[in-house]
Specification:
The protein is mainly α. Helix content is 77%, strand content 0%. Keywords: Guanine-nucleotide releasing factor.
């Protein structure tokens, strides 16, 4: 009944925020297994009904949803992991369809950014469970008949590969957390691997700057921020 109001300004309006926040609250606060099944079903309908709010308007909704779904992908309950993996796959697929089967870059980016944020949290401590979820997503992409002839399956594979790289690098970081130089080195190589993706490169440069400040290396931290400023300036100049 309120579709027009909800979609005004590509979903960036107070009404949509309230409706979306209610949906998100169910994922943020622990629910029973039975309740979660309905929450995931409701979210699937929500994404299908309002694609432009996720894939065209501001990035907030897509970012917040990716973050919460990824947290569910590490759940101890296998049915929740399966549902979360299916929802994440649906989000990528809908994004791909929304761009007329060109790319799902927005969701790709938001997933990697969410993984980078979750690593700092203890939320990705269930590493093997998360790997299982990545496997489920890959299997969905490989067995999705209508998508066979498109670039979609290989893009999904590329995304899961990138996530594994980030996870491996952060596992190494954990080993070297007492060795600030080595830690910074690893972060720097991660930032470099995302040279083509300004948003992600910025995420890792910010993270590096924080470590430098913590260690009292202020000129190094300043260099990171100069790099971030240059990235933003370059990006704005291109636009």
């Amino acid at each position: 009944a309120f579709q027009t109001q909800l979609l005004s300004n590509d979903g960036h309006n107070p009404l949509m925020k309230k409706v979306f926040d209610i949906h998100l609250a169910f994922l943020k606060n622990g629910q029973s297994e039975a309740a979660l099944k309905h929450v995931f079903a409701s979210l699937r309908g929500f994404i299908s009904k309002f694609p432009s709010a996720f894939f065209k308007g501001r990035v907030n909704m897509c970012a917040a949803l990716c973050y919460e779904i990824l947290k569910c992908c590490t759940s101890k309950v296998s049915s929740t992991r399966n549902e979360a993996s299916a929802l994440l796959y649906l989000l990528m697929r809908n994004n791909f369809e929304f761009t007329k089967r060109r790319t799902f870059l927005r969701t790709h980016l938001q997933i990697i950014i969410a993984v980078s944020q979750l690593i700092a949290d203890v939320a990705l401590s269930g590493g093997t469970r998360f790997q299982d979820s990545l496997l489920i997503i890959n299997n969905f992409a490989n067995s999705d008949r209508p998508m066979k002839a498109t670039a979609f399956p290989s893009e999904v594979k590329d995304l899961t590969k990138r996530i594994r790289t980030v996870l491996m690098a952060t596992a190494q970081m954990k080993e070297h957390e007492k060795d600030p130089e080595m830690l910074i080195d690893l972060q720097y190589s991660l930032a470099k691997s995302y040279a083509s993706t300004p948003e992600l490169r910025k995420t890792w440069l910010d993270s590096m700057a924080k470590i430098h400040v913590k260690n009292g290396d202020f000129s190094e931290a300043a260099m990171c921020y100069v790099h971030v400023a240059a990235l933003v300036a370059e990006f704005l100049h291109r636009k």
